[in-house]
Amino acid sequence: LRCQVWSEKVTRMLQSLLTRYESEGDKMLENTGVWVCTVCGFVYIGDIAPELCPVCKVPSWKFEKMEGRA
Question: Per-residue pLDDT tens for 39-65?
């Protein structure tokens, strides 16, 4: 059940990021980092990872910084 709730939250957040990316393009990624929670898949755009994942509540050390473009 917890995984389903996380999945729904992450899906909504990713949709929001994609909508924002459609309007701003690569400009939204300039001079900043992209961080992914290794537990639930939450994606965060910012200079440093958040203290806690807003979805699964794990600490910042559980985030990985993505390098380059996939």
Answer: 999 999 999 999 999 999 999 999 999
CATH number at residue 48: 2.20.28.10
Buried b (16+ CB within 10 A) or exposed e, 21-33: eeeeeeeeeeeee
DSSP 8-state secondary structure symbol assigned to residue 55 = T
State the residue range of the domain holding 10: 2-66
Question: Counting every residue, how long is the chain?
Answer: 70
Residue 11 neighbours by CB distance under 10 Å: 11
Structural domain count of the chain: 1
